[in-house]
Design the sequence.
């Protein structure tokens, strides 16, 4: 940057220094966000983001050229470099951070179509933020929406167990009137990271006690080492939720135009259900 600036304050040298500084600040902020959000090593994320920022700098150079032309034509060319550098850094940091909202601490909805007991189901799996996320829907909204719940804590992290306890109680409170009877089959409490039992902070008995108190089913497993247990647990949840859905349908008998619509749908359409 210094060599570029020393040449002269021509638009070309300024635009070069600007695009390099833009790509550098972008790569730095990208690598910071990558290493924080993905827990990727800083060196790896730095090299990845540096490659990306080099290619980006090709697109940025016309922009920086125009900006530097404007600044060097103005009365204060000496101010252009520090001004642009600080502008670049502060503008690219939020931009690059906003590129990765989905990597961590973000909520997601996964969708999958599957067939259970000959019935077609559209499964929607909502994974909420573990941290408080601004502008995102609250857990309470989602609790009203869902047919089943899998509340996961980390057996090597007591704070996650305390959060799980609060969530289980919230689910029980909000669903008390609706599905008290089904709660034990539709709420699963899962202690994950069983492979880390040497650094365990939450005993199996504590998990079992909470599950018994809140009438939920209890599992302790390791998603990292035995993914089959996770598959089994989710299959059981989907199965229970689809049975629960049947029970709910039986309880809430539609009448009038609704039952006519249901009849038409049963005769002419393939019934699907969202879980
Ligand atoms: N040792 C071990 N690590 C695991 C296991 N399951 C997940 N992890 C690790 O725990 C970390 C967090 O996992 P995530 O799936 O991102 O957890 P999360 O609760 O969805 O995190 P947020 O994105 O903050 O909501 C990752 O580094 C995983 O590799 C497990 O069974 N054993």
Sequence:
């Amino acid at each position: 940057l210094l060599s570029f600036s020393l040449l002269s304050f021509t638009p070309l040298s300024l635009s070069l220094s600007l695009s390099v500084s833009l790509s550098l600040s972008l790569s730095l902020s990208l690598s910071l966000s990558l290493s924080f959000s993905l827990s990727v090593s800083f060196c790896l994320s730095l090299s990845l983001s540096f490659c990306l920022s080099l290619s980006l700098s090709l697109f940025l150079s016309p922009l920086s050229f125009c900006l530097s032309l404007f600044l060097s034509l103005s009365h204060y060319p000496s101010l252009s470099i520090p001004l642009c550098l600080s502008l670049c850094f502060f503008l690219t940091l939020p931009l690059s951070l906003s590129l990765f909202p989905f990597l961590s601490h973000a909520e997601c909805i996964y969708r999958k179509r599957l067939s259970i007991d000959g019935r077609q189901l559209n499964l929607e799996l909502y994974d909420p933020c573990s941290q408080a996320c601004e502008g995102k829907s609250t857990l309470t909204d989602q609790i009203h929406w869902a047919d089943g719940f899998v509340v996961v804590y980390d057996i090597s992290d007591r704070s996650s167990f305390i959060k799980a306890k609060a969530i289980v109680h919230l689910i029980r409170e909000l669903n008390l009137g609706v599905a008290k009877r089904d709660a034990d089959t539709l709420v699963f409490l899962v202690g994950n990271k069983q492979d880390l039992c040497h650094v365990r902070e939450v005993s199996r008995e504590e998990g079992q006690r909470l599950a018994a108190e809140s009438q939920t089913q209890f599992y302790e497993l390791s998603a990292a080492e035995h993914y089959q247990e996770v598959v089994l647990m989710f299959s059981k949840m989907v199965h229970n939720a689809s049975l629960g859905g049947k029970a709910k349908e039986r309880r809430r008998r539609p009448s009038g135009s609704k039952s006519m619509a249901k009849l038409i749908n049963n005769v002419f359409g393939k019934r699907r259900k969202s879980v």
